[in-house]
Amino acid sequence: MGCLLKQGGGLHARWRVGGVVLAAGEGRRMGGVSKPLIRRQLIALSGAGVDEVVVVTGHARDAIEAQVQNFPVTLAHNEAHAEGQQSSVRVGLAALTGSFDAVLIVLADQPLIAANDLIELIGAFKKRPQGHVLVPVIDTARGNPIVLDETARTQVLASDTNLGCRHLIERHPELVHVYETTNRRFLTDIDTVEDMRELAARTGWRFELPPAQMVR
Question: Is 32 exposed, middle or buried (0-12, 13-18, 19+ CB in 10 A)?
């Protein structure tokens, strides 16, 4: 099926877009506090028109699964989640069915990411002049989510390529397209209790945590 582009160019096949949400971490720097922010990411992915979503669980598997049970997602458990984020990326990419024109690798702890931000990344990925992985960069700082094509997905699954490596751009320039943007939401995540408090003070948001896990 095709769609007519408003700015001309004729009929183009609709892209098939996947999403992998990484929710396997132990949250050690959060003092064990659960962060039920994953629902926001799933709503954003749905609003961006993503066709298939895999949620990768690890630590606190039951809690995460309870948060997403009403969403049409595939759950993939990473038994080796303690080995680091890249192992969860592999599990998520392997769980996607079929091939994709683009796959978003989304962190579960980026509460400011909305559908428009993901649409921005997908649009930039479509327009990239080269490369198989798009990395948003804001004032020289690398952000998330990232986007990759089927070539990069295959390479990650078949090799030790680490998309989470902070030196990815320098070590694999042939693989990466740097997307320079001013969108600082790509830099905002919650790794610590202090991050949560700072974000609440800056945005006016109220973070509600399970009673047994309240931060004191």
Answer: exposed
Instruction: Please tell me the distance from the alpha carbon of residue 142 to that of residue 210, in angstroms, as a whole number.
Output: 32
The CATH T-level fold of domain 2-213 is Spore Coat Polysaccharide Biosynthesis Protein SpsA; Chain A (3.90.550)
Q: What's the token pair of residue 31?
A: 């003092």
Q: pLDDT tens-digit profile of 157-174?
A: 998 777 776 677 777 788
Query: Nearest Cα to 25, choosing from 55, 54, 60?
Result: 60
Question: Rounded to an integer, what distance in angstroms lies between the CA atom of residue 77 and that of residue 192?
Answer: 24
Inter-residue long-range contacts of 188-192, CB under 8 Å, 24+ positions, other chains counted: 188/110, 188/111, 188/112, 189/107, 189/109, 189/110, 189/144, 190/30, 190/35, 190/37, 190/109, 190/110, 190/111, 191/29, 191/30, 191/109, 192/29, 192/30
Is the CB of residue 13 less than 8 Å from the CB of residue 5?
no
Asked which of 12-21, 96-105, 138-147, 199-208 is least confident by mean pLDDT, the reply is: 199-208
| Domain residue ranges of the chain, discontinuous segments joined by + | 2-213
pLDDT tens by residue, 40-60 = 899 999 999 999 999 999 988
